[in-house]
User: Fold these one by one.
Assistant:
Number 1:
Amino acid sequence: MRELIALEGPVTIERYMSLCLQHYYATRDPLGARGDFTTAPEISQIFGELLGLWAAEVWMAMGSPSQCRLIELGPGRGTLMADALRAAKVLPAFKAALSVHFIETSPTLRERQRAALAPSGVAVFWHDRVEDAPAGPAIIFANEFFDALPVRQYIATERGWCERLVGLSDAGLTFGLSAEPERTLTQAPHRLGDVLEIPTASIGIAGTLARRLSSDGGAALFIDYGYWGPAFGDTLQALHRHAYVDPLHEPGEADLTTHVDFHWLAKAGIDGGASFHGPVTQAAFLTALGIETRARSLKQRATEQQAADIDSAVRRLTEPGEKGMGELFKVLALSHPDLEAVPGLPKGRFSKAES
Ligand code: SAH
């Protein structure tokens, strides 16, 4: 990173994140107690199972197509998909229609995914980019994927919106600003120093998915730590072994994320010809899908310790506040415009001011 900056000058936050994340995901399995972070499917099998049932219902609403691609972006260890396919067994015609397509760049994680999916008996294919997945009706999952994509950051100065950069000082890597403001940005800041984040990569991917859904049919479900913007603020953070660290410290060794502004994903969806549903909180979504009922039925066959573990996992997935994921995480879906309703999410609409 230092050599690159010495050679080419300061890099954008987007380029910095992109280089760090490529190295980070290519060189490790970041999940679990011994990694840097834990995700919902790793907390409880119920999460993936409920998403599998969600997909089965959407498939029926699509008219039960005889071939349906189940696409997942950034599938991690493959746990969500393995749990979803197990739940999909309740509808044999649905399971028979499926092929699984993973969008995954990390060779390490591809191996984990291969092992996780082997017992499912469903054909699995891997692709580097969303564009490479074959056409046709699709149901798409992305859990904690968009937060791992690079964003651009702009800071309100007296000259206008200047792009935030990473440069070099005697002390090492340091944040800086572009000399020239970005004149195409029209948002009015509240005050000097406001940070505007634009998730260019996420907008591009959501747009590609929306165009696919509106021409070939289906729905996409996005779940992530985030909010409904537009809003100002620097949300770039780095996690190393479950603790926050300086994002410029040891580039490529920590997990870099930003909070997902779902309004950009919904807007990219509308611009691509899809409709959107939600967003709602993860707690509201999982409750609507029946997390309590599923937990109760699992507990009937569980030991006392297992039952306590199930209760604690359900609390972690649905609890509000800083400790739980229930309110911090939001759920949004895009769909073909003919899909009037998807389970657990109300039809979304932009207010006049937002559109
Ligand atoms: N969805 C999983 C893992 C989330 S971690 C879970 O819930 O457990 C983020 C995932 O996105 C990893 O699988 C990572 O390898 C993948 N990923 C990150 N950047 C990517 C990119 N640009 N293209 C494709 N996959 C990417």
Number 2:
Amino acid sequence: MSPSAHITVLGIETSCDETAVAVVRRAADGAGEILSNVVRSQWQEHAAFGGVVPEIAARAHLECLDDLAATALKDAACELDDIDLVAATAGPGLIGGLLVGLTFAKSLALAADTPLAAINHLEGHALTVGLTDGVRPPYVLLLVSGGHTQTLLVRDIGSYVRLGTTVDDALGEAFDKTAKLLGLDAPGGPSVERFAADGNADAFAFPRPMLGRDAPHFSFAGLKTAVRRAAEAAAPITDRTTADICASFQAAVTDCVADRIERAIALASGASTAPPPALVIAGGVAANRTLRGRLEGLAAEHGLGLIAPPPPLCTDNAAMIAWAAAERHAAGKLEADGFDVAARARWPLDEVSAPVFGSGRLGVKA
Ligand code: KG4
Ligand code: ZN
């Protein structure tokens, strides 16, 4: 397998509540092609519990991975023999699900007699724009999903500098919790956005945590508490008030993210010889139109292009895992992992920068 040749990679993603398998081909000239991309969401399994239950997630991955891999190969019109490399998410994420996916990948690589690549989930998100838009580093990345909230300077394949991260809740989590306490349907983000469209964004003066701070970190826990207090004070809540709370929450979040990104761009410009030419947004929350609109304006003010992968490739998928492995391979930065490679619940993409906080539950989101 020479780095200059084209390569066909089967990717597996099981770090949270989506089971995904994809087959991606990278041509020698760097062009990417998705041959298949199968995603099965577990929302229904977790809905009754109000959040993702790790044991249920691991079991659900196990139950469908076999079928999904067969479907991905069939959709791609590939046999196992056509696969050059098997890649799986090895972290960060829920350890049970990671173990299921990585162990499955090991057996598949053994059966197919291919090398195995253990991929960082965040690297998958970080490099997706290479696959979707042919955009290569350097760029500034805002990753905002139910599990992650961070800004990174993507310097090169395999070279990432963390600029900012959340010190408490992830942004998607803040949307989901807001929806839950207002009694809106899951997933929360789209529900809040829908209600916000009919609301008055000035109706509630919600806080803007971290605004103006030097380090471009995020915090959403205080905002969530303010939303709860507003909802309690307005009980029994009407659709009108729900819409106003959603609009005011969305406005507060957008102000926070815009301010933090502005700071991250300034830091990134100082950390590289040339200012990064693009702002890339990824993760489920990147689908939010108010946020997107604001960031488009902000990027333009800084002379940057705003690039966002299409929503199905913004949210968790396995094409991004296969692609990250293919890019690493092409850059000569893929050391095939041994079959003893371990899953990691915590795995910062930037292993050099000091952690913003110690350990525990929040670590996964960093
Ligand atoms: O990337 P993703 O599919 O999964 C991970 O969490 O890794 O992101 C899902 C998150 C959920 O919190 C969901 O509420 C949020 O993205 N989301 C949105 C929107 N669509 C999805 N948040 C705000 N506005 C949206 N339109
Ligand atoms: Zn993700």
